[in-house]
Design goal:
Layout lengths: L3 E4 L4 E5 L5 H19 L3 H17 L1 H12 L3 H25 L3 E2 L9 E8 L2 E5 L7 H13 L2 E5 L5 H14 L6 E3 L7 H5 L6 E5 L2 H14 L2 E5 L4 E5 L5 H13 L9 E7 L3 H14 L18 H16 L3 E4 L14 E4 L6 H4 L6 E7 L2 H9 L8 E3 L3 H10 L6 E2 L18 E2 L4 H6 L2 E8 L14
Parallel strand pairs: 5-6, 5-8, 6-7, 8-9, 10-11, 10-15, 11-14, 13-14, 15-16
Antiparallel strand pairs: 1-2, 3-4, 4-18, 9-17, 12-13
Length: 470
C-alpha cells in the first residue's frame, strides 16, 4: 500500500510520501535510545508540563487537525474535532495521574523478612507502536500519553493512508517540549515492522489493528521475548431484552453501528434481540438506519461519510453479497451509490446463518447483522459465539439480568444500557482473538513498565532474603 493521502470522498490523490530507507530508520531508533536516556532523568512534573502543553496545542489545532483527519480517512469533521478533544483530555488525565499510578507500592515487609519491601514501576525504553487509520489521533494517543508519562519513548509506524496525521503527532510532542526523539514517526510500510521489532534497541511493541497483523507482530515479539499489547478486531454483540427501553436502544444502536462511518473495532455489529421485542426493535432500528444522511464528511448535516479505502468498501460489499447469495435479507441499504469516492450506505441484514461469512467475520463498515434470540440463554450463546471478545452491549432494565450479563458476556468490556466506548479512566482491551493486554487507566500505563520487586534487609546477620530458593 503506498504511503499517501487519498481523499476517500473523491478517490483523488492529495499527497504521497517516500518510505524511509533503512539507514534513516536505524538513525531514528538510535535517537530514541538517546531520548530515553534523557527522559529517564526528568521528573513526573516536567513530563506532566510537556503533556499538558500537548493538550493545549491539540485544543488550538482542533479545527486544522480535524480537517486533516477528515481528508485522510473520511470521518465526519464533527467527529474528527471531537477526537482531537478526546486526545487532549487523555493527555491531561495522565499528566494529572501518572505519578500516582506509578508510585511505589509497599508490600508486607515483615511477611518476607525485610525491613522494607515494595514494587517500583520503571519504564522499559523505546516502544514500537503500530497503529491503524480509523481513529488516527486517538489510537496513537491512548498509547503515547501514558507511555511518555511513564518515561518510555515511542516509535510510530502509522497506517500508510494517514501519513500527514502521523507526522503531525511527532511535531506535536516536539512542540510541547519533549526531548528530540522522544516520539518519532517512521514512514515505512508494513514489511519494515519485523525488522524494527527485532532490533535489540526496541524493547516492546503495541499494535491496534487486524487479527492478521496482530498475529504477525505477536509472533515476532514472542520470538524476541519482548512485551507486546494487542488490540485487534471485534464483532461486538448488542443484546436487547424485553425490559429495555426500545426506542432508546434503537437510537443508540444506530450510533453504535455507524459511528466513524461504521469503522470501529468496538462498534456494535451483531444486534441480538429477544423474540418478544424483535419486530418492534427491528422496525425502529431500520427506520433510524435508513434516515441517516450519507454525504460530504465536511458538512455539518452529514451522519456517515465514505469508507476510508477502496479495498475496505470492496470487503464490505463482498460480505453483504455473500450473505445475500446464501439467503439473507437486506432490510435497508446494501447497494453502493454511483459516483466517485468510497461510499456505502447504512445497511441492515437479517436471516443470517453460520454458513455466511457475516456470521463469523467482522464487517468494517456501516452494516448491521440482526439476530433473533429465543431466550436469555440463547442471546448469550449468540453473543459469545464468535472468536472475538472486545466490547459488548446489553440493554435491560432488570437488575438481575444486568448482573448476569456483566458476568456472562465474554468480552473485555460490558456496557449495559449504553454504547461501548473508551475512557482514560477505564482499562480498554479484549480477550480471545481480540488480543491481550490493556490500554488506558492505571493498568494501561503499567503495561510498558518493569514491575521491579525491591527487598531491603537490615544488613544484620539474622537470615532473610537468600535463605530460601525459588
Amino acid at each position: 500500500m503506498p504511503i499517501a493521502t487519498i481523499n476517500p470522498a473523491t478517490g483523488q490523490l492529495v499527497e504521497s510520501f517516500d518510505a524511509l530507507p533503512d539507514g534513516q530508520v536505524d538513525a531514528a531508533i538510535e535517537r530514541s535510545v538517546e531520548a530515553f536516556e534523557a527522559l529517564c532523568g526528568t521528573t513526573f512534573a516536567e513530563r506532566a508540563q510537556w503533556l499538558t502543553a500537548a493538550a493545549d496545542l491539540l485544543d488550538a489545532d482542533r479545527d486544522d487537525i480535524g480537517r486533516l483527519m477528515t481528508t485522510e480517512m473520511g470521518k465526519t469533521y464533527a467527529s474528527a474535532k471531537a477526537e482531537a478533544a478526546k486526545c487532549a483530555a487523555a493527555c491531561r488525565f495522565y499528566a494529572a495521574n501518572a505519578e500516582r499510578f506509578l508510585a511505589d507500592e509497599p508490600a508486607d515487609a515483615s511477611a518476607v523478612g525485610a525491613t522494607r519491601a515494595y514494587v517500583r514501576y520503571q519504564p522499559l525504553g523505546p516502544v514500537l507502536a503500530v497503529m491503524p487509520w480509523n481513529f488516527p489521533l486517538w489510537q496513537v494517543m491512548r498509547f503515547a500519553a501514558p507511555a511518555l508519562m511513564a518515561g518510555n519513548v515511542g516509535l510510530l509506524k502509522h497506517a500508510s493512508n494517514v501519513p500527514q496525521t502521523a507526522l503531525y503527532l511527532e511535531k506535536l510532542f516536539r512542540r510541547a517540549g519533549f526531548p528530540v526523539g522522544a516520539f518519532q514517526t517512521l514512514l515505512v510500510g508494513s514489511r519494515s515492522v519485523e525488522r524494527i521489532l527485532t532490533d535489540p534497541r526496541v524493547r516492546a511493541a503495541t499494535l491496534t489493528g487486524s487479527e492478521g497483523a496482530g498475529r504477525a507482530v505477536g509472533r515476532t515479539a514472542g520470538q524476541e521475548l519482548k512485551k507486546v499489547v494487542l488490540e485487534l478486531g471485534g464483532s461486538d454483540p448488542f443484546v436487547v431484552m424485553p425490559s429495555a427501553d426500545l426506542e432508546r436502544a434503537a437510537e443508540v444502536a444506530t450510533t453504535a453501528r455507524c459511528q466513524n462511518n461504521g469503522q470501529s473495532c468496538i462498534a456494535a455489529k451483531r444486534f441480538i434481540v429477544h423474540t418478544d421485542v424483535y419486530d418492534e426493535f427491528a422496525e425502529a432500528f431500520v427506520a433510524r438506519m435508513s434516515a441517516l444522511r450519507v454525504g460530504d464528511p465536511m458538512s455539518a448535516d452529514t451522519d456517515v461519510g465514505p469508507l476510508a479505502t477502496e479495498q475496505g468498501r470492496a470487503d464490505v460489499e463482498e460480505l453483504v453479497r455473500d450473505a445475500v447469495d446464501k439467503g439473507a435479507r437486506v432490510l435497508c441499504g446494501g447497494q453502493r451509490p454511483d459516483g466517485d469516492g468510497w461510499w456505502y450506505p447504512p445497511t441492515v441484514v437479517t436471516d443470517l446463518i453460520p454458513e455466511m461469512r457475516m456470521w463469523s467475520e467482522e464487517v468494517f463498515g456501516p452494516v448491521a447483522g440482526l439476530f433473533r434470540a429465543a431466550s436469555y440463554t440463547d442471546a448469550i450463546r449468540l453473543a459469545n459465539g464468535t472468536s472475538f471478545g472486545l466490547g459488548s452491549n446489553a440493554w435491560t432494565r432488570d437488575p438481575a439480568e444486568q448482573e448476569r450479563f456483566a458476568t456472562d458476556l465474554d468480552a473485555g468490556s460490558v456496557f449495559i444500557n449504553g454504547m461501548t466506548t473508551s475512557f482514560p479512566e477505564l482499562p480498554f482491551g479484549g480477550v480471545k482473538n481480540s488480543g491481550h493486554g490493556r490500554e488506558l487507566s492505571a493498568q494501561g500505563i503499567r503495561e510498558f513498565c518493569n514491575l521491579k520487586t525491591v527487598w531491603v534487609g537490615s544488613g544484620e546477620s539474622r537470615g532473610g532474603a537468600g535463605s530460601h530458593s525459588e
